[in-house]
Write a structure and sequence with these properties.
With about 575 residues, the protein is α+β, with helices and mostly antiparallel strands. The protein has two domains: about 250 residues, Periplasmic binding protein-like II (D-Maltodextrin-Binding Protein, domain 2); about 230 residues, Dipeptide-binding Protein, domain 3 (Roll). About 30% of the residues lie in helices and about 15% in strands. It is built from 17 helices and 20 strands. A five-stranded mixed sheet has the order 15-14-16-13-17. It has a four-stranded mixed sheet with strand order 1-10-9-8, with no helix packed on it. Strands 4-5-7-6 form a four-stranded antiparallel sheet, with helices on one face. Strand 8 and strand 9 form a beta hairpin. The protein starts with 16 loop residues before the first helix and ends with a strand.
C-alpha cells in the first residue's frame, strides 16, 4: 500500500479531523486512522489486477444518470425574518449578511451536506477548489477548478474565476476595518499562478479546511467589486443563484446560475425569499402553501403535524450557544461581576431544565414519540457532541455544581461577592432570532430577579446597536445572546478569549490560552479532546461566560410535501449547500 501523508487532501475527500471525531465511538479513533482509510488486508482479494479489471468493466458501462428522475424548473419559495444589515459579507459581522451571501458567492470549500447525515457529523468538500494539499499542515496549496464562471452581469460578464479574485477577497477579509480580520490573523496568502494559491499559516493545523469552509469568512467576490460595482447594493458571484431583485422589507428574488459549476444544479429555476418579520405570519404562509420550508417553534410542531400530516419534518440539535456575558473590566473595574462568585450565582439562578422545556416543548414531544431530550449547553454547545463536555456528566467534575439550579446557594454567593442589590442593565437583541429566543430572554431575566440579581431589561436593535456595539464588548451591565455557530470547535476559544475585537467581555486567561494553543495543533483525538474539555472546566470554575439554554433544544424545519432532495447544513451556507439540491415534485 502506498504511504500517504496525513495532511494531504485531494478533490472529493471527506476525511477532515472533525469527520473522524464527531460522535460517540468515533471520537476516540485518533487521527492516525485517517491514513488507513481504503487500505485492505494483504490476505483479502483486493489485488491491483482485480481492481483494474473491475475498473475496465465499469468504464464500458457508464453509470445511470443519478439525476434522471429529478424534475427541473419551478420556483422555490422561502422566507427571511428581516432585511440583512448589508448584502456585502465583508461589511458587517452580522449573521444576516453571511446568510444572504451564500446565495450568490462561492467559497473554496464548503460543508458536505448530505440528506442522510447529521450536518455536524460531516466534513468539508471542495466548492471552487480542485484540491488542497500540505506536507506539514502549515503550508497549504489550493488549486482552483478551471472554468468556474462568475454570473453574466456587467462589468464581470461571466468571466472565469481566478486566483486574483481569491486574493482580492482575502484582502477584503483581512482589511484593517474588516469585522472578521482577526480570524485570519498572521495567515499569508499568495497566488502561485492563475489557478494555484499558497496559504502560509503561523503553525501547523489539521483544521485548515474547516477554516476556509467557514461561512463566516472567505466569500469569493470578483476583483471588479473594488470599483466596477458596489457590493453593498449588488451581488455578483459564482454561486448557485443570481440576484435578480431586492425590495427591502418585501423580498429577494433569484434565478439559477446557468453556468454554475456543480451541474445540473440548481434544480429549481428561481428562488424567492419573502421578508416576513412576524413568526405567526410566516407559519400561516407555510400552512397555506405559499412558502416551501419554514422553521417551526417546538410548541407548534404537534398541531401542524396533526393538521397537515403530509408535511415533511427535519429536527436538528444545533451547535448554537447562548450565554450571559459581562461589561469589560476596562469600563467597570469594580463591578460585582468582577468577582467569580457573582458570576457563579448568576448561573445558579437559572433553571436550565425548565427553560428548555419552556422553549422546546420537550415533554409533549417525547410523549408523541419524538426523540428529544434536555442537554445543557457548555462553553462548547451541546450540538457539538464530539467536543461538548456534558455539564451533568461525571467528567465535568465539581464545576458541574455551578450549572445546577440552586437559589439558596446563589444567594450565599451573591452576599459573599458584596453585591447589594444595585440595578443592572440586562441587554439582548429582540425580534431578530425568533420568538423562542425572545421568550427565553424574558424568562432568564425573571430567573435572575427571583435569584436576587436586580436586572432591568434593555432590548436593542440587532443591526444598528447589538452587533456593532454590545457584541463587541461596548455595553454596560450584563448581556445575553447567541455566539455564531462555528464549524470548527477552536473558533469558540479564539473568539471568546483571544485578540478578536468580538471577544465579548475582553476576557484573557493564561491557562485557557495555553490549552487553546495545544488543542489547535494536537493530532491525537483523545489528547485534543481533553484539552478542549479542560477549557470548558476552567470556564465553568470562573464562569467568564455563562452557557444558557437557548439553542440547546431541537430546532424543527417543516417542508411542503412536494419538496424533494432535502439536506441540512450548519452555520450560514445553506443557500449553497442545501437549496441547489431541492426540487419540486409537482
Amino acid at each position: 500500500m502506498e504511504e500517504r501523508n496525513y495532511w494531504t487532501r485531494t478533490r472529493g475527500e471527506d476525511v477532515s479531523r472533525r469527520t473522524l471525531l464527531r460522535g460517540v465511538g468515533i471520537a476516540g479513533a485518533g487521527l492516525a486512522g485517517a491514513a488507513l482509510i481504503g487500505c485492505g488486508n494483504k490476505n483479502e482479494d483486493t489485488s491491483a489486477k482485480a481492481t483494474s479489471t473491475a475498473a475496465a468493466a465499469n468504464a464500458q458501462a457508464p453509470p445511470a444518470d443519478p439525476f434522471a428522475n429529478i424534475k427541473r424548473g419551478g420556483t422555490l419559495k422561502g422566507s427571511l425574518t428581516g432585511d440583512p444589515v448589508t448584502i456585502d459579507p465583508y461589511a458587517n459581522a452580522s449573521f444576516t449578511a453571511k446568510g444572504i451571501a451564500g446565495y450568490t458567492y462561492s467559497r473554496l470549500y464548503k460543508v458536505a451536506a448530505r440528506g442522510d447525515k447529521n450536518p455536524y457529523a460531516v466534513g468539508t468538500e471542495p466548492d471552487v477548489a480542485q484540491s488542497a494539499e500540505s506536507a506539514d499542515g502549515q503550508n497549504w496549496t489550493i488549486k482552483l477548478k478551471k472554468g468556474i464562471k462568475f454570473h453574466n452581469i456587467a462589468p464581470v460578464n461571466g468571466r472565469e474565476l481566478k486566483s486574483e479574485d481569491v486574493m482580492f477577497s482575502w484582502k477584503r477579509l483581512t482589511d484593517e476595518k474588516g469585522p472578521n480580520k482577526d480570524s485570519a490573523k498572521d495567515i499569508k496568502l499568495e497566488a502561485v499562478d492563475s489557478h494555484t494559491l499558497k496559504f502560509s499559516l503561523p503553525k501547523p493545523t489539521a483544521t485548515f479546511l474547516d477554516f476556509i469552509a467557514d461561512s463566516n469568512l472567505l466569500w469569493i467576490q470578483p476583483k471588479e467589486a473594488a470599483g466596477g460595482f458596489d457590493p453593498k447594493t449588488q451581488m455578483i458571484g459564482s454561486g448557485p443563484w443570481v440576484m435578480s431583485e431586492y425590495k427591502p422589507n418585501f423580498k429577494f428574488s433569484f434565478k439559477k446560475h446557468a453556468d454554475y459549476h456543480d451541474k445540473p444544479k440548481p434544480f429549481a429555476d428561481n428562488l424567492d425569499l419573502a421578508i416576513i418579520p412576524e413568526y405567526a405570519n410566516r407559519l400561516s404562509q407555510f400552512q397555506a402553501g405559499n412558502v416551501h420550508y419554514e422553521g417551526v417553534n417546538a410548541n407548534d410542531v404537534l398541531q401542524l403535524r396533526k393538521d397537515q400530516p403530509k408535511v415533511q419534518w427535519r429536527g436538528l440539535l444545533p451547535a448554537l450557544l447562548s450565554f450571559f456575558y459581562f461589561e469589560k473590566a476596562e469600563t467597570a473595574p469594580n463591578a460585582p461581576w468582577r468577582d467569580d462568585r457573582f458570576r457563579k450565582a448568576v448561573s445558579m439562578t437559572q433553571d436550565r431544565n425548565a427553560l428548555t422545556e419552556a422553549g422546546y416543548n420537550v415533554k409533549k414531544l417525547q410523549e408523541a414519540g419524538l426523540d428529544v431530550s434536555i442537554p445543557w449547553n457548555n462553553l462548547v454547545p451541546a450540538g457539538f457532541a464530539g467536543w461538548w463536555l456534558d455539564p451533568q456528566g461525571k467528567d465535568m467534575g465539581p464545576t458541574g455544581e455551578f450549572f445546577k439550579f440552586n437559589k439558596a446557594e446563589a444567594k450565599k454567593l451573591l452576599d459573599a461577592s458584596g453585591y447589594k442589590g444595585e440595578k443592572i442593565p440586562f441587554i439582548f437583541a429582540n425580534k431578530i432570532y425568533g420568538s423562542t429566543f425572545d421568550q427565553l430572554a424574558e424568562a432568564s431575566a425573571n430567573y435572575l430577579r427571583e435569584g436576587g440579581v436586580n436586572v432591568e431589561i434593555q432590548t436593542q436593535d440587532y443591526n444598528s446597536v447589538y452587533i456593532t456595539q454590545t457584541f463587541r464588548s461596548n455595553f454596560k451591565g450584563i448581556a445575553w445572546g447567541y455566539e455564531t455557530p462555528f464549524p470548527e470547535v477552536g473558533g469558540y476559544f479564539t473568539r471568546m478569549f483571544g485578540d478578536d475585537p468580538q471577544n465579548h467581555s475582553k476576557i484573557k486567561d493564561a491557562k485557557i490560552t495555553e490549552l487553546d494553543n495545544k488543542q489547535a495543533v494536537e493530532l491525537n483525538a483523545e489528547k485534543r479532546r481533553e484539552y478542549i474539555w479542560e477549557i470548558q472546566r476552567i470556564n465553568a470554575m470562573k464562569m467568564y461566560y455563562i452557557p444558557t439554554q437557548a439553542g440547546a433544544g431541537v430546532g424543527w424545519t417543516a417542508y411542503r410535501p412536494e419538496i424533494r432532495g432535502i439536506t441540512q447544513t450548519r452555520a450560514y451556507g445553506g443557500a449553497t449547500e442545501n437549496l441547489p439540491n431541492f426540487w419540486i415534485d409537482g
